[in-house]
## 1
Amino acid sequence: MLYKKERPAILMFKDGRYFEGIGFGATKKVYGEIVFTTITGAGCNETLTDPSYKGQIVVMTHPLVGNYGVPAWEKDPYGIHKYFESDSIKVSGFVVNECCKNPSHYESVKTLNEFLLEENIPGIEWIDTRAITKVLREEGVQLGLLAVLNPEESPNIEELRAEVKNVEDPNLRHLASEVSTKEVKIFSPSKPRGKVVIIDLGVKNNILRNFVERDIEVISVPYNFSYGDIMAYKPDGVFISNGPGDPATYKSAISVARKLINNSIPTMGICLGNQIIALGAGGSSYKLKYGHRGGNKTVINPKTKQCYITSQNHGFCVKDFERGGFNEFLTNIDDNSNEGLIHDSKPIFAVQFHPEASPGPLDSLYLFDKFIEFMEL
């Protein structure tokens, strides 16, 4: 039985199956692709603001979320948000087992509930996230809806079942255009030693920071910038960012990648950028059953047998890029899917995971240094 101030909430799959819980955050109804992530509760704020989650209702497998609260919207000396991956929440809806109402952290200025309220994002708690995750792992990601109602309302299950049948796959939209910068942005260290143009398909703030902290000036450009417009900045290298959606729909970025490859421009890609480079090389993409989302994904270099524990967030993968002169240099241990590609003779490589999110003894931050070496700075 609901208490007086509690709001009923429903998470429903497109086939009509549903889970009941308690709402938090905004009182509203949203639609999207229901996915799960194994990132811990310590990655909550980064997950919420990651542009790669655009169009998705995200299920956290970690049981308690929000216990360290939400920090302020502070920026570092370069003008980049210090604690978030973008300037707003990007997930469509948030699903947790328990939303902590009394966080404890010296940098916390608000609760998770308050954060979602401010950003007009609905959440649902006291729901069996283990059962949801089991469905997604066994059957694959699902389309569905998340509805948070007013306290006095009762969910009309039959109406919701009729409504959820019409939910469209967000991957059919050009999601990168919804999260990309609308104007050129420049982030510059005091004494830059090089210049990189980033094709922003939904770039994460920590990627920007990793370049600037290495004394590289960053010029972030919209998703549809042409090859000519990019090269007009005379960059030492070009970076193709992470982002949401189906890589095959991003024809402009694929065309740019093809020209970068043909002209041997030093190029690096992360996540969606890995897929765009592969497609530019003549490869193909396919959708994973339930994707790779979490902070504990192991990849291996098949030649050296060295492993890395990585952070990942993608629903698509690539193959057949060898025809364009690339080799696979990193592989996912769980399903043997591609985790990195590198050209045989040109200064171009990419990884499917997020090295900017992997500090520690098994980190892969060296990849940014590798790219700088490729630029011969």
Note: The longest helix spans residues 251-262.
## 2
Amino acid sequence: MRLAHLLTLLAAAGLVAAEGYTDTPLIPGTTWHVHDSARPQPPRADAAKLKCNEAAAPAGAVVLVGGADSANEWEADAVANAKLKTPVTWEIKDGAMIARSNGIRTKRTFGDITLHVEWRSAAGYDTDPKKKSQGNSNSGIFFMKTYELQVLDCSKTETYADGMTAAIYGQQPPAFNACLPSRTWNSYDIEWTAPRFNADGSVASKARITVVMNGVKVQDGTEYIGPSSHKKNPPYVKHDAKLPLALQWHGDAVEYRNMWVVEKK
């Protein structure tokens, strides 16, 4: 048995830790470090219950991916791509948008929303065993350009629990690993509540998210302790009540389709 395969089996059995860190700050309210290698992996959801929800956009929804004008809804994220000299757009093919070369954000701004999105991993671990953990189809959905919900193919590989599929990145793992097999479409049905700030900049209420992945609830009104970051816990900083959604480019051609938003009153 190859060593890499043996380590994967041992990690799945909880006999070795997943990749991660122990020298990062503690996550407030927990005993875990950010991206803690010892943090337990969530259980795998019952595969028989998993199914991509291909929900059609309801009347009044803003279609961000899948509509005739999808390309016009997005722009290169100048902040995330400060070195870009020219905007680079993602490829749109067969109604899907494929991550290419840079992060993008919506031209529209949003506060509290219902968001539906379907995503599919790039060719990865199944064809190249070197593509594993955080390198296996890494992307992310950033609400208000600030608060990340992780997109990653964890169908056969593991990573630090707070950085796996459907994690609030760097903060809270999902309740279940609800990934479908690689190169299979997955769905996120999301209820997002933006943070509120007092006039002095202090936090009146934190950002919250509920996520149903492939029919299984994996986040249930979970609060963000602050903005998403790698190996850090930055504090909330007062910002506008409405900001763009953003999609992350992390080196893999992750695909998105049937992405629509309903703004809450």
Note: The chain has one domain: 42-263.
## 3
Amino acid sequence: MDDHPVFDPLAAIRSPTDALSDVYLTGTVFLDIIFTGLDSAPVRGTESWARGMGSSPGGIANMATALARLGLRTQLAAAFGDDMYGDYCWDSLAAGEGIDLGLSRRIPGWHSPVTVSMAYEGERTMVSHGHEAPPPEEPAPECPPAARACVASLEKGGQEWIGHAARHGSRIFADVGWDDSGRWDPADLADLRHCAAFLPNAAEAMNYTRADSPRAAARKLAELVPLAVVTLGAEGAYAVDSATGETAEVPALLIEALDPTGAGDVFVAAFVTGSLAGWPLADRLAFACLSAALSVQEFGGSLSAPGWIEIAAWWQHAKTFDDQDGDALRRYAFLDALLPSGTRPGPLPRAVPTIGFRRRPAGPAGTGRR
């Protein structure tokens, strides 16, 4: 495995005997197949050709990979099929990214969930297929292993493990999925009482609070949770810290997007990293916006996540070339004291069109067969 992180943002708070995980998360791992370069949405009854394609682990793997690439010790509890897709996702996460899958399980006869994502006009449309994983042979523990933080997706009816983890000292960072029912019942956010931060997008925040703007929605959510962070898409992000009364807003960066799949997960991962490291709110928000912006320049949700070397390269470029506004240079000046120098690891794995090629035997003198 390549040493992707090259920098430990939590080095100052670790001890030589510290075996504590940084982040625990659980959810569904999908095999993502991403098409880009579509001029418009597919039209019924026609065939569309995409100019680009990539495959990578998706779903909860997006956030797990982003956390690991930023140097956090990441534990993922998920189900994996025993098909080739499951093999690929497991190897990519465990061997390729160094994610601890000790709490995950392989399920004989269960095929991996699959998502096809089509990116066009700055957005994406997804089609997914899968079956619910069978329950484990042994009941899952009521409380996950000790971790500095947990990332949870809020669900209707709540999840008992979130409260257990919070009472045992983990900081809970929560997001939420789209409500297909259209109810947007605030009661579905009951687990916010256990959370340190809530990070919905603008549409989710406004629907749950019935607010007429994302910023008003953030202020309402801050009445339910210590820190409310609302992502604003192309406009950046806005945060309200109800404990201190502080607010922060960071605009989006000027970056051309290839594939927005997983950008929200990368945002959350970067914000969690800055929060555990104790950075100021505005710096955490800026770092999350930057990480998400860098991710949309590559195919795929998980394997598009940036590492520290890529963040450092962007910062060096931003200081050298005049393609960002002056405010951006001032906003990201905190990176000078953070970024590693002198380390040149190999390139990060990226999404590729084909999951794996068959090995071909070499021909005479290693020339290959014709």
Note: Residues 364-370 have pLDDT under 50 and may be disordered.
## 4
Amino acid sequence: MIQNTDSVKAISLSKILVVLIGFPIIATLISLLLLNRQLITNIGLDFFNTFWIIIIGWYLIQIYIVSRILHSAGWKWVDIGFSFSKKKTFFFIGGYLFFAFGLLAFIEIALANSIVDPEKMNNISSLTPKTTLARIIFIIMGLTAGLSEEIIYRGFAIRAMVSNKINNWFAVIAATFPFIFQHGLKSIDQFWWFLTWGIVFGILFIWLKNLTYNIIIHWLVILTAMIAILQVIK
């Protein structure tokens, strides 16, 4: 359960702006690799496997930076809606991995016992993991993405702004736009997709005052990208 922000020290607006402006800028710069894939392929690495690993590293760095900001302000994880102890966090993450790798097993069995349409494989989204290794890396990416984005753009951003006497609903909107650019905007459809989810997740957080359900739903949304590979089955 979230603690009342009146009982904790307000996080400085400068630190909030560093997170809400700096993080999306770095994420957008990383996304530019999608336009310059030869920077990775020219050194003999698979582009998407390497890209997802870079993303995983960036998500972990973001969590670490926010944890230091919280610590410096005297905040605890519970103050931003993450109420699990270390033991419960272990089982929470374990539950995700159990489900995700169960889904992976289902996909692998389905593909192994079916005929794959090469034309459909060529036309499927380039961001859909197409190999077993890519899907394993994608699962880890999904784990860190769900945790990081909900901790930063819901728990931290909204509660930190509220601690500065900013209205809840304005905080939801203000946190949604950095969340959009966190993903590297490539089309207007993506803008509306992330805008919608940003507002939905923000409202859910304000309503439930807990990040648990946000993270679970976020994980499930990410994992749907793995299921997309089943479209290639004849």
Note: Residues 12-232 form one domain.
